[in-house]
Amino acid sequence: MPTAPFKSKYDVIVIGASLAGLSCALELKKHGYDVLVLEQHNLPGGVATSFVRGGVEIEASLHEMIGVGSDLHPLRVRRYFEKLGAKIDWVRIPYCYRFVSGDIDVRIRAGHDGDYSAPSLDIANACGDPDGKLFQKLMDFFALCHKVYQSANSVNTGGKINKLSLYFKHHDFVTVAGYSTKEVFEAFKFPQKVIDILSAYWIYMASPIDELPFTLYGYMIADYFGYGPYIPAHTSHDMAANLEAAAEKQGIQVEFCQKVDKIVVNNCKVQGVRLASGQEIAADFVVSGAYPNTVYSSMIEPKSEVPPIANKTVRAMEVSVSVFSVILLLDASADELGITDYATFYATDGMDTSAIFARGRTDGDWDYITSVCPNVIHKNASPEGTCLYSITYLPGPDAFEDIDLEHYQEYKGRHVADFLDKESKRLGVNLEDHILEIVVETPLTVSHYTGAYHGAIYGYRNMMNNHAVARTLTKGKEYFIDGLAFAGAHQICGDGMAPAFDNGLLGAQDVMAMDAKRKGAKR
Amino acid sequence: MIIKNKFADSMGAFRVTKVRNQAISEASDSPLLEDEVTLKARKLHQGSLPTTVCDVEEMCAGVKRFTFQFSFIPYFTPGQYLSLRLKIGDSIVSRPYSICSSRSLAKEQHQLQIIVKKADGGFVSSYLVDRLSIGDHVEIEYGLGEFTIDRFRDKPKILAIAGGVGITPFLSMAKSLQESNPHGIEMTILYGCQKESEIVAKKELDALNHDHVRVIYVLADEPSWTGEHGFISTEIIQKYAPKEPYSVFFCGPTAMKYFVIKELSKLKYDIRKIRMESFGGIDISKDTRYPKDLLDKYYKLTIHRGMETLTVDAFVQEPIAVALERAGIKIHTRCRGGVCGICRIKVISGNVYVPEENDGRRDADKKLGYVHCCHAYPMSDLEIKIPIE
Ligand SMILES: Cc1cc2nc3c(=O)[nH]c(=O)nc-3n(C[C@H](O)[C@H](O)[C@H](O)COP(=O)(O)OP(=O)(O)OC[C@H]3O[C@@H](n4cnc5c(N)ncnc54)[C@H](O)[C@@H]3O)c2cc1C
Ligand code: FES
């Protein structure tokens, strides 16, 4: 009988039992690798998690998800869990969002199974469309988004691509690859109001529309508007716990409360990891959920094994946003409080996304807030006579750089007061009179629970000079240390809980590519 | 579809690859730095750390105050607790204790204090009160729990109801308010004890008794007492509660908690709004939902810890966490009341009883067989998986 908790060696060690980490481990196990998953926290999921306050389970991070789709037209995340044999209770969000900015106040329905007429109609009606031309233009726009979506999905799951196959098989995908979201909006000659409404989702990509690659924006839009946003009824922890249970069932060793301190490297090749407890565990491959910034700045042992090109590549990318979220359990139902929408984007000072984004990198004011009330679509989200309400902005990584811990509470308090005030005025109820529980999440909270660099939740910022297409085309060149791969929002597919599964898959593919290369070299 | 012109449109993938490569070639290759946010988060939440007992003071019979010395500022919010871990004999145990000291003591002296009352048959409290002395080392995790005043949720008028040693979190709040009170909080403390001699820290409380803090002692069993007598009933609450809307905080024994809830509901106080911290454990032999015929049984626990397998015996009236601690198997606990979730483990097979009250598990965990082992009792032989420590 073994008397040590770990084997002396594993094929692969995955750092982090996040959605990406666990799906990476499952993929590798499927291909015959012996996998150990090490998680510092006592729960799976990373940011995909929930907490219990006042006896109520409360979502910690997820607003809405792409990649789910209806029962009849299941998309990849729904299919993924069906295949695992895990039952997730998905709830469809009928409206993509309510968008409030200046004199605009509209609700946009989500389409069904790839049909974009409902959202097109809602946007056209909101902006005035006497001859039906705007409606048609919006349908064309969504059709383009859908093309991008289909191409990206086949590129993602197909593995190998090259420039030629891209050009012939995925013409529209190639056409828009070099353009920002703003440039495509302009090509369609949309009126400003339409652009403002269509831009509302920019925050879930956290880059202003003139810097945000259309490929990514179009991809997300195609899914949300065409298939509808979804959430798991029992919070994102339901996904995490099901992955954990599935991993263990498949014979993957998943260990919690195990902080990996160092990734041991010798001669440009990964040897294994060292835990905070001092224990060393050998492995042929390490897949890191920790950000490359963290890995190269403080985990690679010895430091001299960090190749300069790794530093250059990481420095060329910008770490994306973190989160500031005020999560409330209120003492009355959504109906009683007059809360009618699941998700509302509220631009309090116009829709210049560059200006909003720039202010988000300072300590305020933050003027693009997202509020979510799950009870609107899911009556049992909290006990009868109560409802949950969250108010969120995604500040840039610099916003919390300079605060000192002495004034941390004050700093938090100032933003909480601002959020409560803005939302109370918009809703016409004084939220402060109704609070049963209040939880405030900041970049420090994220960093504390997940160890994420800068408390980042979205990986690297999507920009024209850090484009997912470029990263895909050059990815083989970015295995800087033999045996070291990554799985997390810092992978190519970026932020979001559905992309997390793709990021896990990419991490697994990277391991297998390196493995094939090693085997080839041996032969 | 044409965005700009055919040529420019077809060259997009090439362009974005080129600008990315260019960005990389222009970037510095100097070593990357650790980030400020993570370093700050680490300072705020230090985890479990060794500390030294630097002072022990007898407060009254069977009650002592302990001061722990840290080597940095232990940031906490008044009302929070710390979890103390020690080895007693073969057992490795931990217990929660509310921090009773002020913010400034943490900031200026790097110290935290707790007051411990020796419980009847108390395993850890007896050890602490009888044995723990200056110079001893204990491991402490601090800044835990949500029993704190929140300026957005709570009214500026606070009605604090304490029973016995349950005064500790309020002592910290009151002292800290005296040091700094930017939001103008006023706190009325109704402090219930049996006898005058059991009032913990009476001198300090009397000294705090002005301006923002008011303390009213309510003694159940002290005929010569000139102040309030009896329990903290509706009448007492009505007499002393602020006239303006107020928020209620309760800390004390479990039995008193139920009594106070009953009294407050008579006053039409929305009991969902009471903040509660109760010190007592639960006794499942008094739980009507637990099968009586099992009460004197022992079951076998088969424990998977990483690749290792261990077995221990578990008494049904004790939570799984205690069975592990008795056997000297480390298990991380904090609240020991089912709520915080740090002691989550997986039940692979067997039946477990989880008391409904304070079952702080997430929905998916209930469905998939995870339990908080401080709040789960064996009802058959069990196979469980616990974290490696
Ligand atoms: C948030 C919070 C704050 C608190 N703050 C305070 C405070 O400020 N002051 C205060 O005095 N108390 C406080 N308490 C209560 C405190 O945590 C303890 O419950 C109390 O001191 C009694 O602990 P005990 O070990 O003495 O007694 P018990 O926990 O009742 O001791 C008996 C327990 O120990 C187990 N046990 C017996 N023998 C062994 C063995 N050999 N190995 C392992 N386990 C064994 C028994 O099975 C039983 O479960 C607080 C509690 C909470 C939840
Ligand atoms: S220690 Fe908090 S739930 Fe068990």
Beta-strand residue fraction of chain B: 25-35%
Q: Compute the number of strand runs of chain A.
A: 19
Q: Cα distance, first to last residue of chain B? A: 60 Å
CATH superfamily of the largest domain in chain A: FAD/NAD(P)-binding domain
Major sheet: arrangement of strands of chain B:
4-3-6-1-2-5
- Assign the CATH class of the largest domain in chain A: Alpha Beta
Rg of chain A, nearest Å: 23 Å
The largest sheet of chain A is:
8 strands, mixed
Mean pLDDT of chain B: 95
Unreliable segments of chain B (pLDDT under 50, ≥5 consecutive)? none
Q: Can you describe this structure?
A:
- The complex is a heterodimer of chains A (523) and B (389).
- With 523 residues, chain A is an alpha/beta fold.
- Chain A has 18 helices and 19 strands.
- In chain A, the strands form 4 sheets. In chain A, strands 1, 2, 9, 10, 11, 12, 13 and 19 form an 8-stranded mixed beta sheet that branches. A 7-stranded mixed beta sheet of chain A has the order 7-6-15-16-17-14-18, sandwiched between helices. Chain A has a two-stranded antiparallel sheet with strand order 3-4.
- In chain A, 58% of the residues are buried.
- The model of chain A has no long low-confidence stretch (mean pLDDT 95).
- Chain B is globular and about 95 Å long.
- Chain B contains 11 helices and 19 strands.
- In chain B, α7 links the parallel β8 and β9.
- The interface between A and B is large, with 100 and 75 residues.
- The complex binds flavin-adenine dinucleotide and FE2/S2 (inorganic) cluster.
- FE2/S2 (inorganic) cluster (FES) binds next to loops of chain B.
